Amino acid sequence: MSGEQKMKAKGERAKGKVKETVGRMTDDERLETEGQVEQAKGHARGAKEKAKDAFKH
Q: Where are the domains of the chain?
């Protein structure tokens, strides 16, 4: 399960980065913000998984 969640986190970060970049290029503040939020969710998910791994070992 942990590996699946880590991949999900990386996917969210990548998708968010793309949205943020496209939003910047097109001057779409809403899309840029959505991308930043998605990246933050990915970072939070990744941090949660790292914490779980730390307590396992």
A: 2-56
